[in-house]
Sequence to fold (348 residues):
Amino acid sequence: MSTLWREALLEQNSFNYRQMTTTLPAATATELHLQPCKHQVAGHLFEEGKAGSLVDEKGHFYKPVQNGPRGRREREFYERVRAELRAEKAARLRAAEQTAVSEEHSDDDEQASVSGRSDDDADSQANLPFSVRNAAMLAAVPRFFGVVEIDNVTLLELEDVAKRYRHPSIIDIKLGFRTWYPTADQRYIDKCKAKDASTTQAALGFKICGMQVYRACQRGYWRASKRWCKQLPQDAVNKALIRFANNEAGLRPIDIFGGRNGSIAQLQQLEQWFQRQREFFFYSSSILIVYEGDAESAEQAKVSIKLVDFAHTFPSDGRKDTNFVEGINALIDGLTNVLSLDYHDFMM
Fold:
């Protein structure tokens, strides 16, 4: 464990370094070698004196669950997704067992069992299996492995999306023209409105919350502070996005944002899901764009996007999430606009 980790835990008093490994479940206590997540670019960070997120050697990311309804909503979102997938898997197993039994009797029975749905049902989005109708979301949301307790602190055990990269360059972009939800109290709504108006959130439909860029020539990272992100003016957003795509090893914005496997194409796939889905409202959620920082080509960059932060996610009760749809389209338009610029004019 690093000195930073010890100091952060002792300062917070919400963790106990000496007792940490003994308070984990016995089956995992010897397997987890937790360290501060050095590639986290937004949210609660250790350097701010808060209990930040952790990672282990297996490629898992441990996010502290916030107190109150925010933490409960995020946990419930991940647990609902897992429950839906488990129920679907169980249903498939039951169907397979029934098919096996029917094979002993007649081919006609087998055909009836396999067909399962009428043509009308097959054409209905709501009647598709959870994993089918939400495939784009499931591809973007980090995998959920469960919940662990460390010294009475609850952490979500998630996929570490930076693990597969040697030098991950990451940007965290919060989407939506508003971050508040209609059922919140007026004080909270007014606070969010003021924050949204003071940043690019309300004007552009998205806000850069944090980023780090691996600079190959210097063999190190340039990292934006929270203050830098909050004070980023609207007319400097293009420059910030171009800066994110410049790793000083030959990559250009087209390599990160454009192309068949670039972030725009991936965002468009996710946007198509948002246009159809009627299950969730995502307020104040973010998109992470990640690529290999020392890459020299688009193929080596291995660009990926992830949908994160679900503390303000609610059931939509059959309604469209227009706020997030508008936000993701605004980001797509913003990245597309960057590709039309001469990036040399914005180099720092």
In short: Residues 1-30, 109-123 have pLDDT under 50 and may be disordered. Residues 68-103 form the longest helix (36 residues). The two ends are 36 Å apart (CA to CA).
